[in-house]
Design goal:
98 residues, Alpha-Beta Plaits, four-stranded antiparallel beta sheet
C-alpha cells in the first residue's frame, strides 16, 4: 500500500454542505476504522480539508475520494503521492494499580 496526500478545497459553507456533513463524517470514521484514511484535518476557516489515504495506487485513492459525500462540493482536489507518512504511535492508557 502507498500513501496519498489530498488537499480538498470547499466553497463558503452553505446549508447543503451542512446537511451533507453527518453522512460524510460517518464514511470518514468507517474509512479510519478500515485503515484506508490515515489522517484527516479541516482548517479553522472550514474551506480546506487535508487527508492522507492508504491505497494501492493513485487511481484507487482518487476513487475513494470520489465516494466522499462532500465530493460534489469540492472546488479543487489535489493529490500528492507520498514517499512515507509518519504519525505518533497510538498508545494504550497506563494501567492504574489503585
Amino acid at each position: 500500500m502507498a500513501a496519498f496526500f489530498f488537499q480538498l478545497e470547499l466553497p463558503e459553507i452553505t446549508d447543503s454542505i451542512v446537511a451533507t456533513i453527518p453522512a460524510h463524517r460517518l464514511l470518514i470514521n468507517k474509512l479510519f476504522s478500515e485503515g484506508r484514511i490515515l489522517s484527516y484535518s479541516v482548517s479553522s476557516s472550514r474551506n480546506m480539508v487535508w487527508c492522507v489515504i492508504n491505497a494501492e495506487d493513485e487511481q484507487e485513492a482518487m476513487e475513494l475520494v470520489l465516494t466522499f459525500p462532500l465530493f460534489h462540493h469540492f472546488i479543487d482536489v489535489t493529490c500528492h503521492p507520498l514517499l512515507f507518512h509518519n504519525t505518533l504511535p497510538t498508545t494504550m492508557p497506563g494501567m492504574s494499580l489503585n
